[in-house]
Amino acid sequence: MARDWIAILDFGSQYTHLIARRIRECGVYSEIVPYNIKAENLSARMPKAIVLSGGPASVTSTKSPSCDKDIFKIGLPILGICYGAQLMAKLLGGKVAKAKTREYGKAILRARSRKDLLKGLSAKEQVWMSHGDKITKLPRGFDIVGSTDNARIAAMADERRRLYGVQFHPEVVHTPKGKRILRNFLINIAGCRADWSMHSFVKASVRELRERIGSEKVLCALSGGVDSSVLALLLHKAIGKNLIAIFVDNGLLRKDEARSVRQKFKGRYHINLKTVDAREKFLKALKGVTDPEKKRKIIGRVFIEIFEKEAKRSGRIRFLAQGTLYPDVIESRSAFGGPSATIKTHHNVGGLPRHLKFGLIEPLRELFKDEVRLLGKELGLSAEMVHRQPFPGPGLAVRIIGTITEARLDILREADWVLIDEIKRSGLYRKLWQSFSVLLPVRTVGVMGDERTYENVVAVRAVTSKDAMTANWAKLPYGLLESISSRIINEVRGVNRVVYDISSKPPSTIEWE
Length: 513
Ligand code: XMP
Prior knowledge:
The chain is of the alpha/beta class. It is built from 14 helices and 18 strands.
């Protein structure tokens, strides 16, 4: 039986992903599609309902994005949110005008009708507004079902045709009953089954993977990070020993990391894991290199060389599995995403080049990052692994400023180990997006006992973030900073000074290189 799903037409709102998330949290699968999708193509994919997202444009402008008007003729329930509601009003014969005052922030919705879309709400509810235009005249067949002080038509409905528009944002937490409104739309109005969960996702994925792969072999690169670990576990559940996971020890990993990955995945999860010890190869290729982009490119190239060689050695392999996530998928096909400058060449063990002649398997491509964590939990991945902070593909190479040597790697490994130990003890590990040490290419003077020292500086970086696109430096308690500093200086040979990085992104980046 095909699963129920909701199509979200994306008009470029910063909240579109949030709409998708909230709908899935209601137990209904949702997907974001381009705003200009043809009605017949949408209809062929058989969604149970359609949501029109918000967006930054104004429907009063001639250049504003519009959807195929025929989607209103498919007969499916449609919910327009903010821009989506205004567009619905305009296309169906209502009127939208620039509001005298922009409304941004909390407002009180007075519900006129508390059934159907607004069922279960109180007469007054807090909602979140963010709009410049407002609907001034209802399209034919619509009634006002809710108003705020600033927007007489804050919620409108044509219950007969199952068309709805809300000026506020039900998807944000500042609209406390927003999820109830979405659930009313999804379950009561559109008649969706609320049966999408990680458990059902695993069952369906395993079945689909088995059907597609049969008795062929699949290769994947495992780094021990959340995405590749979850990918490997899911495939292992589906095809067992026919999954060959390759773990490349590039010598740029943190203390004890290589051993722990081997022990977990081979020992505990019984995955068919091949470890390649490429430490020397990477160190040799990186010898004397100081330029950050050069480092990144070399690491990417050497990794691919090794992976290709291993692939050849593994015999006949038809498929390659990658841990592509949903945000990567939408980013690459977003209707609004323009080309952006390369800030850093990313190396990611998941991102192998297409010229490798494999069929591509991407079972996580429907999921958001925190859904991947939930999936990991469902698959029995330990809490420690599920909540690991991200670690970049080029590893410690981009955290040693200047040349990389075995001796400098050792210093950084020890310093980072102490830092993470302190952060974990303080209970802040999961609250921080990332926390790590950076080894600087400077030596400074210090005094230990009665001796003069002339040693390395370690910079500590800790940031909070939602998605790594922006980040704030973390306001770590002074007491914690003090113990981090004193422990690193006392316990790590070769370090006599610790500094704290107080830069946010932008204009800085999270990693130093
Ligand atoms: P920046 O330093 O650009 O990093 O603010 C944003 C996020 O991406 C991680 N990062 C990487 N991840 N391969 C990865 O898989 C890479 O080459 C890479 N470079 C940076 C970084 O740790 C942060 O979370």
